[in-house]
Every structure is written in structure tokens, then in C-alpha cells.
Write a structure and sequence with these properties.
By secondary structure, the chain is an alpha+beta fold. The strands form 3 sheets. Strands 6, 7, 8, 9 and 10 form a 5-stranded antiparallel beta sheet that branches. A 4-stranded antiparallel beta sheet has the order 2-3-1-4. It has a two-stranded parallel sheet with strand order 5-11. Helix 7 runs antiparallel to helix 8, helix 12 crosses helix 22 and helix 20 packs antiparallel against helix 21. It starts with a helix and ends with a helix. It comes from Micromonospora terminaliae.
């Protein structure tokens, strides 16, 4: 009778929890489609406050009534611009000037020296923010399609921003759909059940809805900043990590159903066994992501809290909503392979992983040495990675209007036309600074800034003059960045000039320098934080150090593998400066999950069986679920490939390749073999390193006998 009351009480609690979460989901669900409304993609706003380009932007504000972002409308006819073409350009320019958001008067059209192209600079009010994209769309409507051999493209900083905004506003639908389909297919393969896949997918969807609500509210109230990149990563991160946590809990629940007759008792035991590892894993990812707050770039600081909120919401859902769903499902949820109450050893359900564990036991030292050497060999490929600032033509995986226009400009004009470097100097040294700047290789011309429609004399503001230096190379190229660095060195040497160099290329230079600084600061902090969490979880010092070492080796091997993939398969020109840091944070934070899943179970089994037997048992019972979790996470991050942005495709490929390498090689072979070879000392200086040696020898003999 008491058992019946207990069962009904447990069922009632589960029903209340599920209904409560369904109400939350109904309220939070609509916000997943509203994130684009509170996202901002103005990269200039993400510069460090103390960067030279930021100071230049502040000085530039005094020289104009309104700050502008230029759109470059370029017309090309390879046989030569005709009088009719020039009339069309004049007519279009007149219509451009009348558009809301365009700051007039427009400069006169610029005809190229070869007379095959005409360029119109259209200043757009920077206060328009993301509405700059709408103004660019109107420019493109006015120019219309190519006509009788005359091509028209809208490029420049405003054209590029418009194309980026178009990509990011399309994130919600396609990326979410692809992610859902990928997770569904993998869950069907993993569980081979027409029922069980519903539970983790429903819980992951609930996690995403809750995360979207929190992120929307925080971004709308300016507590955090959300950009398109963070929005896309949030989607795949929540579904990937959420499905991982669900797989771990469900695998443990299946085990406990063999040991407990009542599902409630099985779930309670499963929750107690799996929750510490899941919480430690989630906490590691959250803390690692929050380390991005140490970044000097606002774009990085935006990604950290957004992703951390996603993981926190996922933890909450997976430890409450999912257990309640599974409890209501009981054994029938696993149909047609329902686990029976038979007190079976959990290793009996993991035949292939039991054989792998046996192989590790017989060849432990050989296994870890060979795998370490292979990973080290892959890591040598890091030298081919080619971290740089991606040029505008390299940002997209497909051709865009802004890229096509920039190519036209590069063919017919000094490539820096329309995006000049700006030099601010004292009035008394302006002529000397101009001469010095003109002598820098890569600078095509230098002229003083004068207000459009003014007298034509140089503008003086607070004793300063602005010079505009047109570069020979495209403003987003490596050549232009080298020129900016050399230009800064040259003008800084002029006594009394107090020169400041800014502009589009200078922003890229300062962003690259900030990325390097962030990488050098954040990576050691993340490693230290992870080591502390592992030490607390495993109650040891040696094990965390070795696990951190395997994670770093796996990360370097992944970068080496990615260098080969990007260069020889995908034909990418390189990776963005931010790529190594993002790849590190996600690969290490997520990769350490599998260390936690494995070693927390190994420690649990070591207490009962001894370390070496515990290693083999832990590998046998977690190998399948960790591999499945790795495949899910790799597949979800691969969904980033549907977005036509090289930087997100590269991040998706890196996380997918790294997670597969981590689960198949590092977590299945290297770590277990290393732990087995070291034996009880792996838990040094904890008591387990001294107290289980006799049991360890006995357990090892049994495992070898198997």
C-alpha cells in the first residue's frame, strides 16, 4: 500500500513539473523568434575604448555634423563609360541624395582613370544603426539590375554591413531547422526507438525557449549585448550541450532500471549518479564562457554571457523537466528495447566497449604513447593555420553585392578609395605629417579634409586638422593593415603632432591586436578555472593536470587538422584573428565535459573496485554515451555550415572535428590508457591514491582474466 502511495506521489510530482514547464515553454517560446530584434551587428561599436581607432572616431565626430558610414555605388562598363551611363549615374545620385538617412550633399561622381567605371560615395547617417541595411536596400532598388553591359554594385562599409545584417537576420529559421533535423536523426539512430527521442528533443527545445527569453530580456534592457554571431552559436550550443546532458542522464536511468523495480527509485539513483557530473560539466562551460568577459573586445564579451545564459537554462531544464518526462514514460519509453529489472551488471549492455576496455588493459602504455604521438603529429599543422584578418571577399562563402563591388573598385581605382585612413594632427604640423604620410609605401595620396559644400579650405577643430590617406590596397587586406602600422609609426615620430590614425582599416588592425591580447590572457585563465573545478570534483591534483594536458593536446591537434581541411579541402584563405580563441573556449570547455563524464564515473567505480578495474568499468559503461554525445555535438555545430559566413563555418568545422577527435581518440583511448597505466597514483594526493591499492590489484586481475 505504501509503495502504491509512493508511486502515485512520484507520478503527481512529475505531472506537476511537466505541466509547469509546458506553461513556461508556452510563454518563452515566442521569444526564440524575436532575438533578431535585439541584436546589433555594428562592429565599430565593439572596439576597445582605449584603441587608437576609437580615439580617431571620437575626434572625427568634431569634423562633421553627423557621423556617416559610406556606401560606394560603383558602375562598370569594360568597353568604356558612355554619355548615357553618365546621365544614369547623375540621375541615380540625385535620387540617392533624397533618401532618408543619406547625408547630403553627395560628393561628385568619381570616374576612374581608365574611364571604365564611375563611383558614387553615398554617406549614410551612422545614427541609423542597423537601419543602414534598409538604406542600402533602397540604394540597390534605385540602381536596379545590370543594364546593357553596365554593371552596378553597392559596396563599401555600408554595403558590407547590409550584407552581414541580411545573413544574421536569416539565422533564426534555417539554422534552427537544420539543428533540429540533425539532432532528431542522430537520436533515432542512437536509441533505435520510435518514442525515446521525443524526450531529449522536447527538453532541448524547452531549453532553447527559456534561454531565448532570458537573452531577449537582458539584451533589450542593455544588460548584455547580442550580435548575430552570438545568436547563431547560442542555437547550436543549447541543442548540442542539452542533448549531451540528456544522453548522459538517460543512459544512467537505463542502467538503474535494471537495478530498481520502480522507475521512481531508478530515476532517483540515476539523478544522484549523473547530476554531479552534469552540474560540474555545465559549471565548467559557464565559467569558461564567462572568462570572455576579460576580453577587451565588446564582441567577445557579448558572446560569453549569452552562451553562459544558454548553458544555465539548459542545466535547469535537463535536471528538472527531462527527469519528470522520463519518469512519466517509465520503461515503455525505451520500447522496443525496454530494460528489465534483472540486477544485471551494467557492463553486460556494452559489449563493444567492454572489448575496447580489455584492449586498453592489455596494451595501456602502448595505446597512450601511440595516440599522444599521433595527436602531436597533427598539432604540427598549426603552423599552416594562417591566422589573419579575413578580407571582405573572404568573409562570405558565396558572392555578395558588396564583394562584387569591392572587386570592381580594386580593378579601376586605388583600392582604398572610399575608405581612406584618417589622420588627426595638430594644425601646425599638418603639412609635415602629410609629407611623412605620403612617403609611406602603400599610401596613394594624402589630402586635407574639407567639409562638403564648404569653402574648400582644410577644416580646423580644436586646433586639429584631419588628413585623409587613400591606400593602394583594399581596406580589408593584409597589405592595407601593414600600411596602417607603418603609417602610424611614421606620423607618431613627428614632434608635436600628437597624430592619431583611424578609419576602417585601422579598426581591423586594432581589433586584431586586441584579439591577440585576449588570446594570451583568456586561455591561461580558462585552463586554471577548469583545473580548479576538476580538482574539486575528482578530489585530486594529478588527475586534473593530466586531463588538462590531454585537452590542450587535443585542441592543438584539432587546429592542425583544421589547417589541412581549410587549406586543401574548403580552399579558405586562412582564419580570422578571433578564431583560435573561440575555438579554444568551445573545444576545451565542451571537451572537458567528456573528461568529467568519464572520470567522475571512473572515480565512482574506483571506490568499489579499485582504480584500474574502475577505469575499465567506467570506460565500458560511458564509452557509448560519450561517443553518442560527441557525435550529437559535432553534428549540431556542423549546422553552422548552412550560414554563408566563413568565420562561422570555420568555427563549426573546428568544433565538430575537435569533438569527434576528443571522443573517439582522447576519451576512448588516451585518457583511459594513461589512467590505467598510472594506476591509483592518478588520484594523488587524495586518499583514494592510498586506500584502494589492494582492491586495485584484485580488480585488475579480474579484468585481465576477462
Amino acid at each position: 500500500m505504501a509503495g502504491g502511495r509512493s508511486r502515485w506521489t512520484a507520478t503527481l510530482i512529475a505531472v506537476v513539473v511537466v505541466l509547469g514547464w509546458l506553461v513556461v515553454g508556452g510563454l518563452a517560446g515566442p521569444y526564440s523568434g524575436k532575438l533578431g530584434d535585439v541584436a546589433t551587428n555594428d562592429n565599430a561599436a565593439f572596439l576597445p575604448a582605449d584603441a587608437e581607432a576609437t580615439r580617431a572616431q571620437d575626434l572625427a565626430a568634431g569634423f562633421v555634423d553627423r557621423e556617416t558610414t559610406p556606401a560606394l555605388v560603383v558602375y562598370e562598363r569594360t568597353s568604356g563609360i558612355t554619355p548615357a551611363d553618365q546621365q544614369r549615374v547623375q540621375a541615380d545620385a540625385a535620387r540617392f541624395a533624397e533618401l532618408p538617412g543619406v547625408v547630403g550633399p553627395l560628393p561628385p561622381p568619381i570616374v576612374s582613370q581608365d574611364r571604365q567605371a564611375v563611383q558614387v560615395v553615398v554617406p549614410i547617417d551612422a545614427a541609423e544603426g542597423e537601419q543602414i541595411g534598409a538604406v542600402v536596400d533602397r540604394l540597390r532598388e534605385i540602381t536596379g539590375s545590370d543594364r546593357d553591359g553596365l554593371t552596378v554594385d553597392v559596396a563599401g562599409p555600408a554595403g558590407l554591413l547590409a550584407d552581414l545584417i541580411e545573413v544574421f537576420t536569416a539565422i533564426d529559421g534555417p539554422l534552427l531547422l537544420v539543428t533540429l533535423v540533425v539532432v532528431l536523426v542522430i537520436l533515432l539512430i542512437v536509441y533505435r526507438s520510435p518514442v525515446l527521442w521525443v524526450f531529449p528533443l522536447l527538453a532541448a527545445g524547452m531549453s532553447y525557449s527559456l534561454a531565448s527569453l532570458f537573452v531577449y530580456v537582458l539584451a533589450k534592457n542593455d544588460v548584455i549585448k547580442l550580435n548575430g554571431q552570438a545568436q547563431g552559436i547560442l542555437t547550436v550550443l543549447v541543442f548540442g550541450a542539452g542533448t549531451d546532458y540528456a544522453l548522459l542522464l538517460i543512459a544512467r536511468y537505463r542502467e538503474e532500471l535494471h537495478r530498481h523495480e520502480r522507475p521512481w527509485d531508478a530515476m532517483r539513483a540515476a539523478w544522484r549518479g549523473a547530476a554531479p557530473a552534469i552540474i560540474a560539466s555545465g559549471a565548467t562551460v559557464i565559467v569558461s564562457l564567462l572568462c570572455l568577459l576579460l576580453s577587451s573586445l565588446n564582441s567577445n564579451r557579448a558572446l560569453g554571457p549569452v552562451s553562459a545564459v544558454g548553458i544555465a537554462a539548459t542545466l535547469l531544464v535537463m535536471l528538472t523537466f527531462l527527469p519528470a518526462l522520463l519518469l512519466l514514460g517509465g520503461r515503455w519509453a525505451f520500447w522496443p528495447r525496454r530494460p528489465r529489472f534483472d540486477q544485471a551488471d551494467p557492463r553486460t549492455e556494452h559489449g563493444i566497449w567492454g572489448r575496447i576496455a580489455g584492449f586498453v588493459a592489455r596494451r595501456a602504455r602502448t595505446v597512450w604513447i601511440v595516440t599522444a604521438v599521433v595527436l602531436a603529429a597533427l598539432a604540427l599543422g598549426v603552423t599552416q593555420l594562417g591566422a589573419t584578418t579575413l578580407g571582405q571577399s573572404d568573409l562570405f562563402t558565396k558572392s555578395t553585392d558588396s564583394v562584387a563591388g569591392q572587386d570592381v573598385i580594386a580593378r579601376h581605382y586605388p583600392a582604398g578609395t572610399g575608405s581612406p585612413a584618417t589622420i588627426f594632427t595638430s594644425q601646425g604640423t599638418a603639412e609635415q605629417v602629410a609629407r611623412v604620410a605620403q612617403g609611406v609605401p602603400g599610401v596613394s595620396s594624402v589630402r586635407p579634409f574639407s567639409r562638403p559644400g564648404g569653402t574648400g579650405s582644410p577644416e580646423v577643430v580644436d586646433g586639429r586638422v584631419q588628413l585623409q590617406a587613400t591606400l593602394a590596397d583594399p581596406p580589408d587586406s593584409n597589405g592595407a593593415e601593414r600600411t596602417i602600422r607603418e603609417l602610424r609609426v611614421a606620423v607618431h615620430r613627428v614632434p608635436g603632432a600628437d597624430a592619431v590614425v583611424g578609419g576602417f582599416t585601422a579598426i581591423n588592425v586594432d581589433t586584431a591586436d586586441a584579439s591577440t591580447r585576449d588570446r594570451n590572457v583568456i586561455i591561461p585563465v580558462v585552463l586554471l578555472v577548469i583545473a580548479v573545478i576538476l580538482a574539486v570534483l575528482l578530489r585530486a591534483l594529478l588527475a586534473p593536470v593530466l586531463l588538462i594536458a590531454t585537452v590542450v593536446l587535443s585542441f592543438l591537434a584539432t587546429l592542425g587538422l583544421c589547417a589541412l581541411i581549410f587549406r586543401h579541402i574548403l580552399d579558405f584563405p586562412g582564419v580570422d584573428q578571433s578564431f583560435p580563441l573561440f575555438a579554444f573556449v568551445f573545444l576545451v570547455a565542451l571537451g572537458i565535459d567528456y573528461n568529467i563524464f568519464l572520470m567522475s564515473r571512473v572515480r565512482e567505480e574506483s571506490v568499489r573496485r579499485g582504480t584500474r578495474a574502475g577505469v575499465l568499468t567506467g570506460l565500458a559503461v560511458t564509452g557509448g554515451v560519450i561517443t553518442s554525445a560527441g557525435i550529437v555535438l559535432a553534428a549540431t555545430f556542423s549546422a553552422l555550415a548552412v550560414l554563408p559566413l566563413v568565420v562561422l563555418v570555420e568555427l563549426g568545422v573546428a568544433v565538430a572535428a575537435g569533438v569527434l577527435l576528443d571522443t573517439i581518440v582522447v576519451r576512448s583511448l588516451l585518457v583511459p590508457a594513461l589512467a590505467y597505466d598510472i594506476g591509483p597514483k592518478i588520484w594523488w594526493p587524495g586518499g583514494l591514491s592510498r586506500n584502494n591499492r589492494n582492491g586495485d590489484r584484485a580488480g585488475a586481475e579480474v579484468e585481465h582474466a576477462r
